[in-house]
Amino acid sequence: MTELQRIAVKILTDAPPSLNLDPFLAIFGRWRTATAHPADWVDLADYAHMPRGPGIVLVGKRCNFSFDLGGAAPGLLYASKMGLEGAPEARLLSVFRACLEMSRSLLAEAEFPASVRLQTGSLELIFNDRLETANTEATDQQLKPAVVAALDRLLGPGAYQLTPQADPDRRYGFFIRAARPLNLDEMLSRFQD
Amino acid sequence: MATSPMVGTDRWSHLPAEVKQEIDIYETELRRVQQGQMPEKVFLEFRLRHGVYGQRQARIQMQRIKIPLGMLTTAQMERFADVAEEYSDAVCHITTRQDIQLHFVDIDDTPNLMRRMAEVGVTTREACGNVVRNVCACPKSGVCSDEVFDTTSHARAMAYFLLRHPDAQNFGRKFKIAYSGCEQHACGLAIMHDIGAIAKVRQGEGKQERGFKVYLGGGLGAIPHQAKLFSEFVPAAEMLPLAQAIARVFARLGEKKNRGRARMKFLIAQVGIEEFSRLLAEEREKLPLDPRWTSYLEEAERFQERPLLPGSALEAGGQTPDFLRWAGINTEPQRQPGYSAVTIFLPLGDISSEQMHGLAGLCRRFVRDTVRTTVEQNLVVRWVPSGSLPEFYQGLRELDLAQIGAGRLADITACPGTDSCKLGITSSRGLAALLNEKFNNGLGDLAHRSDLKIKISGCFNSCGQHHVADIGFFGSVQRKGAHVAPVFQVLLGGTTKGNASAYGLAVAKVPAQNAPAAVKKLTDLYASQRAEAESFSDFARRLGKARIKEELEELTALPTYEENPAFYKDNRQPWDFHMSTGVGECAGAVVDQSEFMLEDADRLVFEATLAFDEGKLDNAAAKAYTAQIKAADALLFQRGLLLSDNYNTVEKFRQLFYDSGEFYPPFAQSFFRAAEEGHAGLGTEKTRRRIEETTLFIEMAQTVYSRMAGAKV
Q: CB atoms < 10 A from the CB of A35, how many?
């Protein structure tokens, strides 16, 4: 599994599906001009016209970051595309960290809708590559230990519940519910040592 | 550089050998160009022929995938959903030619993307480039209640006959084919294609013979051409050899160097349809017999899609008002009793991976593999038992795919524009999204009008088909002082009816911010002043362009940046469209004079359209030429030439803007041609073309003028 690059993490929110996405257009419109960002931003894609669609997507060469209206609930979706290194656990932690850091930056923006609250206890983890990580027993045997190790560090051992994606046609991944939701800073502090 | 772990393994050994080899070669060439072993220019056309198109964003690709006739199976839909979420941004975009496009694709992912599509029988081959593009056909072929016959097998045979055909690999430009099942409906838009085939039958000896009324040399693009009638009846058995002969003549005689005049429409305009027909007959005689010309015909006669479920009638009563409203607009009874064709309205042609997956699942329950994309960027699901419509509707609602509006005013066609296209000038999708939002909030009374169509292109190239809309828009720019604003030309008088039988002409230019207000103004005007049963194009003709321009007058003014900076942002783009140029006051004064001259050019071309409408052709041609002179003078003024110098405008323009490559050559050539032709006795078609070319010449002058000040356009 040397090409494990496409990993996505989504932090769910309490935003209604009808949320006006214009603030994200403004915020990502500014972010995309940052030339030195490791994501290597390319542009943004505006899918606000699609109910339960990808929302506003800040597209980069290495990752995308979006306010996404699809899935179980609207949320902040970080999707890695390339540049991950190390063992699967290290790659997973790297993706979690990037997602948390970008989410924190987003929340700090003045235009971020005040009514939207992050549900940091409800996360989605998606392995976005059916060729490399098909939703099979074999993949599960290979990757689940790394997933558990990464989540143990992020949320604490046994402090969460993992629900796997049961449909084999959908991407391999998990819905994660934390026993006690931690805020972004608390989770990021777990990366300090 | 990450390389695919699958290359060189048996992972793809189940693919047909020739398909596997073709994609392996593509990947090898990709790696070669990445390692500097192949010239970029050569690889460019090579990758285009595999549907890989560079986006305006550096190092990012759009993958176009051909869907012949728009026909999709559920397995293909699921695969599209998969590759869109893994390699793109989880959106499948339906194009105006029934393809599906994925945006923001990394070129390194394209080989595996192609292999995965090949697993479900889909090729990206010849989706872009100077080849035969996707063959289009009515999405309701075979189920339409008033078609002459089902064109499905004929169009499909044409698509696969020409795919990879050696006679169709050496064109100077792209080549498009469309089939229509009848003359009266717009579904196939046959008349705007290089080959437009309309189903016909004639009485043969003892039986009816199938064939096609064939038009040749149509095309939109910057300079639209109505196709010329080639034959009232070409027997079905002659269609494939005819296409092969056309391909050979076009490849041999079509322009290769000047891309702006390389479509087949220019060749036919140059030699005339009679001479072109003679060349075709000569070429047809030389063709060696190919069994594929006719091998499909027997199957074509028998071809009939099979439903999954038995037909049933929709029970009267007990339906919700929402369902009844949706069914009234988005469904149509099929020719086969007990079945309905359902149109799924996709705003801006977009469907998410999640929705596509869900829809495939829904289709598996109700129909066989009978889904088609449409040129209006929607999906049609055929063979839904009418009695199952409430349940099908409920399934669509759960996927957020039950939006009402298919075929209505809210069903806007738009090209990608500046979202991803290198040629885009303005955000056509931004305008379409804004209109969509307004139709949902505030302009709801207009949304479901069935008598009007809006089509939007982000530049003059007409990928959004603005020429064949009741209200068409194409994007441009206008400079005011040191700032550049996005604007849209408003075109009226076009129609998709009769297979796109009339093209519109520009009547006014409005700032992008005012485009929604222009739609409201025009539709209100139509609603309040139309005569009974009068179509919009008839209404626009009756009212006259001068009156319509007058009505739009208040929306045409562009305030200065200082007065209202919002006009210098494009729709749904909260950042400035332009960059401040920092030119000094002296330059500012010079700019004012050029702006004035460009305004004058706009006025003159409008007067030319009025004269054209009144049948004063010589006058129209003269005014259009004078408008070109004005626009050229505006640019020459920027180079320090004064009108009082009595210079020769054409000569100086050629020297300073054409020879230097600063002005888009085809538009400059139209100016030189106008200078040579004069303006007397040109006839209707040439005069009309001159007006269209003049509009484009002025828009290009605006663009060059904006660039000259260093503004970002």
A: 7
Q: Which amino acid is located at B466 in the chain? A: H
Q: Look at residue B3 in the predicted model and tell me its pLDDT.
A: 37
Q: What distance in Å separates the CA atoms of residue B185 and residue B151, rounded to the nearest whole number?
A: 14
* Residues from chain B contacting residue A6 (CB–CB below 8 Å): 86
Question: Does the complex come out with an ipTM higher than 0.90?
Answer: yes
CATH class of B144-302: alpha beta
Class of domain B581-713: mainly alpha
* CATH class belonging to B408-573: alpha beta
The answer to whether residues B506 and B549 touch, using CB atoms and an 8 Å cutoff, is no
pLDDT at B590: 34
Domains of chain B, by residue range, sit at 17-118, 144-302, 321-398, 408-573, 581-713
Answer yes or no: same fold for B144-302 and B581-713: no
What's the gap between Cα B655 and its chain centre? Answer: 34
How does strand B413-414 pair with strand B454-457? parallel
Q: Torsion angle, CA of A161/A166/A171/A175, rounded to 10 degrees?
A: -20
As for how many domains chain A has, the answer is 1
| Host domain of residue A133 | 7-189
pLDDT digits (tens, 9 = 90+) for B125-180: 999 999 999 999 999 999 999 899 999 999 999 999 999 998 998 888 999 999 99
Task: Enter the CATH code of domain B321-398.
Answer: 3.90.480.10
Write out chain B residues lying below 8 Å of A52, CB-based: 352, 354-355, 400
Q: What is the mean pLDDT of residues B442-461?
A: 86
Nearest-by-CA chain A residue for B112:
A131
Which two tokens mark A41? 């931003």
Asked whether the beta carbons of residue B350 and residue A47 sit closer than 8 angstroms, the reply is yes
pLDDT of residue B589: 32
CA angle B144, B500, B212 (to 5 degrees): 60
pTM above 0.90, yes or no: no
Residue among B78, B89, B347 minimizing CB distance to A45 = B89
Res. B2: pLDDT tops 90: no
Q: How far apart are the CA of A54 and the nearest CA of chain B, in angstroms?
A: 7
A1, part of any domain: no
3-state secondary structure of A149: helix
Contact list, A26 vs chain B (CB under 8 Å): 574
Q: Which among A61, A71, A129 is the nearest to B59, CB-wise? A: A61
From chain A, the residues in CB contact with B572 under 8 A are 25, 46, 48
| CATH number for the domain formed by residue range(s) B17-118 | 3.90.480.20
The answer to whether residue B586 scores a pLDDT higher than 70 is: no
